[in-house]
Amino acid sequence: MVFDVKSRPVGLPVQDDNGVAWIYEGDALKPMSEEMRRRIYNETGIDFSASICIDAKVDDLDETAIEKFRSNWVEKSGKNQLRTLSKEQLLLDCGAITDAGVTYAALILFGRQQALVKHLPQAEIVFEYRSSEASGPANQREEFKEGFFSCYDRIWELINLRNDRQHYQEGFFVFDIPTFNERVVRETILNAVSHRNYQLGGSVFVRQYRDRLVVENPGGFPLGITVDNIMDRQSPRNRRIAEMLSLCGMVERSGQGMNLMYELSVQEAKPLPDFTGTDDYFVSVTLGGLILDKKMLSVINHIGSERMEALSTDDFLAIDALYHEKPLTDKMRARFKYLASLGIVEHTGRKKICTRQRIIRCCWQIRGSYTCRWAG
User: What is the pTM of this model?
Assistant: First the structure.
């Protein structure tokens, strides 16, 4: 006898009359775990941030946070008529509230402390500063249980309090480079707020050390996103939050924030964002703050701002890999001819590396440096 059993619907576990979804584990039939159910529900891409918090009211939203959002929206759009809108109409126009009520996105971005503690206590950001690797209490800790627009400037102020300057000299000129680039830090925190899973109980953590910043958020990468394709694909877990942040110019809907993080890291000769420690339950991003090689800064300075404006993220990554003698991907190698046309890299010839198999590779280097790589 042959049984044809259809697959379950996307985003929906099949349950019996008692609401139990069964799975096979080896030869045993067991109830499906809550974690597996959550992963299945997430397949549909339901936007939790756009759903309505039934008990929340407009009065649960902080007016100061709303006015910050209004000001940023006016500046981004140039629409001065937004200044004359009532609070309720402004929130309706941006999607923070609907005729059905207040969305979770509105609470996450504008919620008062009492409202967030009551309706969504996991939507908090915890800042910690640690002067050493020793375990135990942090040297400083602040918990932000309020809307993001009420606290994001304060989070940067805390980081900037211990933001040492690193000196780099080019000829007679001395440049100061901060350990933590404000744009990179803000993009990282915005990503954590925009893409975390608010149905999980954890908090967003921002941990500052002397030489690095670690940002962790619950939920793992959205479906279809990996470390390898994170700059090429966009899949916002909380679309309503992303839309509202885009309206006021804090994030780009095109997903260019992550690209910018990589580009600025290369321009400041710092380590690329590191996702070590990321798994199905948490995303962890480490921003290295120390300059790897001051000679690399000289290379970047010689490229000049005009030529850098013509470079893509892939170009920056190719320059970084070539200089630091990292493995070169096909995508990086494909950029060398364009970089050569700008006078940034140069072809230094060909070299046979295996007589028996007659393998010949092109040799490239950054113009003006002694670093040389075989590019295939």
Answer: 0.82
Select from 3.40.50.2300, 3.30.565.60, 3.40.50.150, 3.50.50.60 the CATH code of 50-288: 3.30.565.60
Q: Are 76 and 248 in contact (CB under 8 A)?
A: yes
Contacts with 286 (C-beta within 8 Å, 6 or more apart), sequence order: 212, 213, 214, 273, 274, 275, 276, 277
Q: How confident is the model at residue 363 (pLDDT cuts 50, 70, 90)?
A: confident
Whether pLDDT at 35 is above 80? no
**Quick one: pLDDT at residue 370?**
54
Pairwise CA distance, residues 9 & 86, whole Å: 44
User: Would the CA dihedral through 139, 145, 148, 150 be positive or negative?
Assistant: negative
Reported as half-sphere exposure (CB side, CA atoms, 13 A), residue 328 has a value of 25
Q: Is the pLDDT of residue 323 over 80?
A: yes
* CATH architecture for segment(s) 303-374: Orthogonal Bundle (1.10)
CB contact set of 173 (below 8 Å; sequence gap of 6+): none
* pLDDT score of 75: 95
